[in-house]
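Objective 1b of the project was to move from sequence-level analysis to a structural picture of ligand recognition. The entry below was assembled by the postdoctoral researcher (A.K.) and checked by the PI before modelling. It contains the amino acid sequence of the target and the SMILES of the bound compound, S-adenosylmethionine.
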Amino acid sequence: MLNQYNKIAHFYTILSKLIFGDKLHKIQQELITQLPTEGKLLILGGGNGEILPLIYNHAPQLFINYVEASSTMIRLAKKKAPDQQKIKFHHMDVLDYSHKHDQIYSGFFLNLFHEKHIKQIIKKFEKSNQTIWYVADFQINENTKNRLFRIIQLKLTILFFRLTTQHTIKHLPDICLVFSCSGYSKKNRSSSFVFWEVLKK
Ligand SMILES: C[S@@+](CC[C@H](N)C(=O)[O-])C[C@H]1O[C@@H](n2cnc3c(N)ncnc32)[C@H](O)[C@@H]1O
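Corresponding predicted holo structure:
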């Protein structure tokens, strides 16, 4: 649905820093170093555009399709995008965006969806067996450090977003498992918090 994030768009970065410190930013910073430097990249739910200058510094020639449902987030992202960046903003629900891509970036976005919808999103956007997803997201497993703390932290975060943005999901989806069931394998290392490039097996 459109514009659900409008009321928190201006506070999003500060809220995320209050809850997670610099962690979410650092993870995306590291993931961006893995991105291709040419071709087209689809960004799903890109938010306020914090990542755009980082992507430009890494890959000034990369063409970006930036799909985001919140008009305020898009406005903020347009301000953050470097003037020379090759980027097209699409103010729409990702489910209404109909082009397939070989390179797809998703930062703390897929966790908003139920597993069955994540599966549909993967199918909807993957172009071929060569498709690579660059995913940064939450993940709790047996290797998670401070597991109980992380579980409580994420439960409170989910509750916060349910109250402020009307998200319907009540649990943290197992994004990794959905990719694995959709025929992908992780290319790079994984940590308790995030995973990286996922390629078709
Ligand atoms: C949790 S924020 C993450 C933002 C950004 N990727 C980041 O890491 O800072 C999720 C973003 O996805 C957008 N969003 C949520 N549902 C969406 C949908 N169905 N289609 C497109 N964007 C959506 C929200 O407006 C919000 O900006």
